[in-house]
């Protein structure tokens, strides 16, 4: 494995760990009501039927991921560290872990708290806006990548809907990881 792949993997795993910290702290602080805290954070398995809806969402998200790969210019795809291009199994695992951790942070922690305070749809929209923040860094690779941002917002709304429908981040985490790995293989 080359140095660049090692760096990507370490970065993805470290980011995944950091993204899970707020949810972990929240659940630990709310230890008098751990079941309610886990449910609010979406840390449940969900029902079997939840995964059927998630399969449909995955198809939509896969189409959006494919559209996103078409927007990225070839010179940016080729530049070092500009994309999550998957070249080894270890890089793929890192991408999947980071995707799952994004679900824990954005759809679990943020959406759980925002939906409780403002309601279901405002919580979904607000977490989708927060989901854009770490994706703004793509603009450092080139301003021509701006069309990716509205796509990321739509992805945040779809995954937020999946989470709110199922009270679990797991179906969305599986979908998000699968779509990001597929996109990384397409690049």
Summary, kept brief:
The protein is mainly alpha-helical and 187 residues long. 76% of the residues lie in helices and 0% in strands.
Verbal overview:
- The chain is an all-alpha fold and 187 residues long.
- It is built from 8 helices and no strands.
- Helix 5 crosses helix 7 and helix 7 runs antiparallel to helix 8.
- The model has no long low-confidence stretch (mean pLDDT 87).
Features:
single chain; 187 residues; mainly alpha; globular
What is the count of β-strands? 0
The number of helices is 8
- Report low-confidence residues grouped into runs of 5 or more: none
The percentage helix is over 70%
Query: Which structural category fits the helices and strands?
Result: mainly alpha
Radius of gyration in whole Å, from Cα?
Answer: 16 Å
N-to-C series of helices and strands = HHHHHHHH
Average of per-residue pLDDT values: 87
Shape: globular
Largest sheet: none
End-to-end C-alpha gap? 18 Å
Roughly what fraction of the amino acids lie in strands? under 5%
Describe the secondary-structure layout.
Layout: H1 3-29, H2 34-40, H3 48-71, H4 74-78, H5 89-118, H6 120-132, H7 148-166, H8 170-186
